Request: fold
Amino acid sequence: MHLEMPMKKILIIEDDISIRTELKELLEHAGYEACMLERFQNTVEEAVGANADLVLLDINIPGLNGEMVLKQLRKQSDVPVIMVTSSASETDEVLSMSFGADDYITKPYNPTILLLRISALFKRLDHSGVAQTYRDLTVNPSKGILTRGAEELFLTKNEMIIFQMLLNNQNRIVSRDELMTDLWDNDEYINDNALTVNISRLRTKLAQFGYEDAIETRKKQGYILNP
Reply:
């Protein structure tokens, strides 16, 4: 018997009417539920209230730009975000990832590639696994939380993927190529700078939580999670 899976909801935040309409049609034809933001006075609040499974967020929108929206959104939600921009600037990409984006695509985008990126992101999220432990922390991949007693440390999806891969391979060095393959699922879309940003952000969060020595860099080889 075929069991129908719940339809994933994707929120489109794009001020160009023709582009967002095309995106909505593309996503709906691919089997997703798509909704669009049409006013941008309260973008962050509306994004949180949409209860979407994924947000496609354009950088150049009225009011707060996309990067500022993402920065504020990350204070309230860990909803997966793919940044969409007309700029091929590496600065835009690194800045977006540093604010908590899960992926990044440049316009004019290839519709097939966009759908593959979305599918790969959902696939990673669906394989979140069960709770694990690291030192005195409880690791909950599905919620993106590390807990120590009543204290909680929230990680983005990419940070949790990196941390969990290091945890699952704690007795060996994990190469940058392995991490990037696990994150983006396809060598063609790997970006070395984005990985560096995610590693740095994860290290900072762990250090602020009292684990300054958790991730050790092995020069020209990769990273290892110290026991």
